[in-house]
Design a protein that fits this description.
single chain, alpha+beta, Immunoglobulin-like, Purple Acid Phosphatase, chain A, domain 2, 2 domains, ten-stranded mixed sheet, 9 helices, 19% helix
Length: 541
Amino acid sequence: MPPELLRREWLQALLLGTAAQPWRAWAQRSNPAGLAADPFGLGVASGSPSHNSVVLWTRLCTDGLGPANATVSWELAEDAQFARVLQRGQVTAQAELGHSVHVEVSGLQAERWVHYRFMVGDAVSPVGRTRTLPAPEALAPRLRLAFASCQRWEHGFYAAWRDVATRNPDLVLFLGDYIYEYASPPGGPTPQAKTPIHRVHTLRRAQTLADYRDRYALHKSDPALQAAHAAYPWLLTWDDHEVENDYAGERGRESSGADFLRQRSAAYQAFYENQPLRASVLLHGLQGLARPDALRIYQRSDFGRLARFHLLDDRQYRAVQACREAGSSGAGTVRAGRCAELTDPARSLLGPAQEQWLAQGLAQDASPQGPRWSVIAQQTLFSPRHYGGASAAARADEPTPTDPWDGYPAARRRLLADLQATPPRNTVLIGGDVHQNYVCRVQADPDRPDSAVLASEFCGTSISSHSGATLERAAALQRDNPHILLARPDQRGYAWVELSPQRWQTTLMAVDDPGRADSPVRPLARFVVEDGRAGPQPDTV
């Protein structure tokens, strides 16, 4: 059977929950004491790929295992039947890390698809599929990737992930809000409400390590999300809801004291436990999670010479949102003319060290040996949104959201200056967070529509999380902001990118009905960026 037909057959079985595994029927026969009947109920995943290595992940479901560790075996093979095993080994699933497993497999050939699985006792996991990236010097002819964010469990099913799993990307980028810390609203599902709830859970608002572990288990119970993890390697960053809405650095909703740092440390540990991350992100080990630089998740990833991804962290190092009131549940908005703190040049969204790291990376991208496409993958909308007119008086009195880049205008100008001083060949920013689709021209001066176009921006909507914006407000934004080519708050979904040395093509994919796990997913709009020509151009869908 041709390889593509084999892949489709395997993926079809995976989406049906069987993963083409005859052993799943007997996997519950003999497990070590304390493991659940199916210890691999949270699925498998891979991530942090390079040209010669990748991380394989799973987390054991336990039933009273307590402080005991467990020994997990793993295999990596050329084929899904494991007739041609490339590597195998054993690893300890440590109780202090939630019985999670992070296997860093190295010594692999570049640009190669492989399969993997885990075993504990007689139980065998679903089969995962992953790949290595092209060699550093290779100019790959194509890259297909999906990027997404914001998947609140109650707000809808994950039909978007089901669609991603069928499209055969080389890579998935997740840009934050993998979980939401909230308790479910009181009452049952309300699919007909203005802000519908499609499913509910009984978990309390997350604050402790056990709470966050339970929240990841809830989200990872979704079969479509499991299928997308098992089928392709992921690169991930976080946003606020992995800890708490609109937190900033060491300040949470209630305070910046020891209680919040304990909560943040628990959330950071749970994030590491539940994602395919390298051990090197734990800069100071588990005991250092309360430090200001607890986990370093910003990183660079090269897809040969075709694309370089600068994956950012805009939460851990940021200054507190401008003019934020103590004890507020969210950052909110301010009137620009009534908040002097908003324009303080010392305020940073990324923190000084990460700003410098990004500037140095972009300068390297501008060299003759740099990548064809420089991708700044971050959490939110970079381009400004002005409300109500272009006059100075109107700008001074307009409501300014303080949590995205609009709330850190000096930091945005520094990044724009870096892009203008040493411009990479092609720069594209991708983001999420705002639960809306945006396509923008990134200009040298955000306040001057006639300034030079430096880059392109695609900010994707949410997988399932609601948007409070209206189509009328989005239309007004487009009218008052010529750099915004598209603004759509009314669709859930993800963004699909097809990239070649000559062009970048983004298709915004929209879910018909978030209340259906099997909802169709259709193209909403398509834009292209041509090599050497900054700024997106509309394309036909």
